[in-house]
Design a protein that fits this description.
Length: 149
């Protein structure tokens, strides 16, 4: 497996783990809602149920966001060898190395760090469309793009 495939796989694992966590939380919440139905009546019961319903809505939104991120990740072309930074590019700079896919944090391979970032992040927006040798300004730093894979 080449570096891009390894980074992609790490991003995929990151998303799958988040997806499973949210699904497990939904199952636990559903159990709590079912048991709340069987508990005592009154204002306390209604408040508890309302809180659980709000939590369920929040988890539903998180699940929708994960599905959107999965869709973005599925658009990454691992065989793309463009000289211009696009979705799926590995970008080496004089500061940090980036993998333009989804926001999945720091990934380390062969003692080399890469930051999986979305193209919609502030740094991602600056990098998209640039080529090796270009310099961008970010957080009062000049970042030189050394290499793109």
């Amino acid at each position: 497996m080449n570096l891009k495939q390894q980074l992609y796989q790490s991003c995929n694992t990151f998303i799958e783990d988040r997806f499973k966590t949210i699904q497990n939380n939904i199952v636990e919440l559903q159990k709590a809602l079912n048991s709340e139905t069987k508990s005592s009546a009154g204002d306390k019961h209604e408040t508890g149920r309302a809180m659980l319903q709000l939590e369920r809505e929040k988890l539903g939104l998180q699940l929708a966001e994960i599905n959107k991120i999965k869709k973005t990740l599925s658009k990454v072309k691992l065989d793309n060898t463009s000289n211009v930074i696009t979705l799926g590019s590995i970008v080496y700079t004089n500061k940090l190395n980036y993998f333009i896919t989804i926001s999945a944090g720091k990934l380390v391979f062969d003692n080399e760090s890469f930051y999986a970032i979305s193209a919609n992040t502030p740094i991602g927006k600056l990098l998209i469309g640039k080529t090796a040798g270009d310099i961008i300004g970010f957080n009062k730093n000049n970042i030189e793009i050394k290499k793109i894979e």
